[in-house]
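Lab meeting, item 3. Inverse folding demo.
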């Protein structure tokens, strides 16, 4: 009974089964294509991501390379600047050394000039005193003229010294040598007055005895024999142990 009932339906069932069987491979093919497409899309997405990563890494590498290049350039610039600084330091040291030498030379020159301007101690005829450099130079110049036989110049220089420096320590010696310069000029009256002024100011001077002998000579040249004899006799009494006293004794014999 059931069999009879199912028989009319069998063709339809078989047809449906056939249709399902016919459709199933197509659907399976469709499913395979979708998965392939998805796999391809996924693969493309991964490739794109990888390409982006690679590009990012390449950009980072390029940035690092650029940074290293900049750093190298900076290092080179630093080396150049350092070399310049070293050169400047060396030049500065040389300049400082030159400046120090110049300062030392200037200081030495200044010290020399100051010494020339400072009063200087001198000793003349056993007497020590302090004189200005110009004062000393004036006296030495006059003495050089006297030694050279230039009595006119020596007389002028000694007179100028005594007028310019009335309190000079050279005063006694200057007057003594002025008397000699005048005697060399044959200015016997002037020489006589100068020697007398010398003796009045410095009776104990080491050259006092010689001055008295010079006075006697001036008196003799002026034909004042009596005065010359008195002077010689006074010389022998006042300075008996001097060489001038021995000369005076000889001179007295000549005058007699």
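The presenter then showed the designed sequence:
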């Amino acid at each position: 009974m059931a069999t009879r009932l199912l028989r009319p339906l069998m063709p339809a069932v078989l047809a449906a089964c056939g249709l399902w069987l016919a459709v199933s491979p197509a659907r399976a093919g469709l499913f395979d294509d979708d998965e392939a497409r998805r796999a391809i899309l996924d693969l493309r997405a991964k490739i794109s991501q990888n390409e982006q990563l690679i590009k990012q890494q390449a950009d980072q590498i390029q940035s690092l390379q650029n940074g290293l290049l900049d750093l190298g350039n900076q290092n080179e610039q630093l080396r150049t600047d350092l070399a310049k600084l070293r050169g400047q330091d060396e030049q500065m040291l040389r300049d400082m050394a030159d400046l120090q030498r110049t300062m030392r030379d200037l200081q030495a020159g200044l010290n020399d000039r100051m010494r020339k301007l400072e009063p200087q101690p001198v000793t003349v005829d056993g007497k020590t005193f302090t004189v200005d450099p110009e004062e000393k130079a004036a006296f030495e110049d006059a003495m050089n003229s006297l030694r050279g036989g230039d009595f006119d110049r020596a007389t002028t220089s000694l007179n100028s010294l005594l007028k310019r420096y009335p309190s000079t320590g050279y005063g006694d010696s200057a007057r003594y040598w002025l008397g000699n310069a005048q005697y060399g000029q044959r200015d016997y009256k002037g020489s006589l007055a100068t020697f007398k002024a010398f003796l009045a100011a410095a009776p104990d001077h080491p050259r006092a005895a010689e001055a008295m002998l010079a006075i006697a000579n001036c008196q003799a040249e002026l034909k004042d024999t009596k005065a010359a004899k008195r002077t010689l006799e006074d010389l022998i009494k006042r300075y008996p142990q001097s060489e001038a006293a021995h000369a005076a004794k000889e001179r007295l014999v000549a005058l007699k």
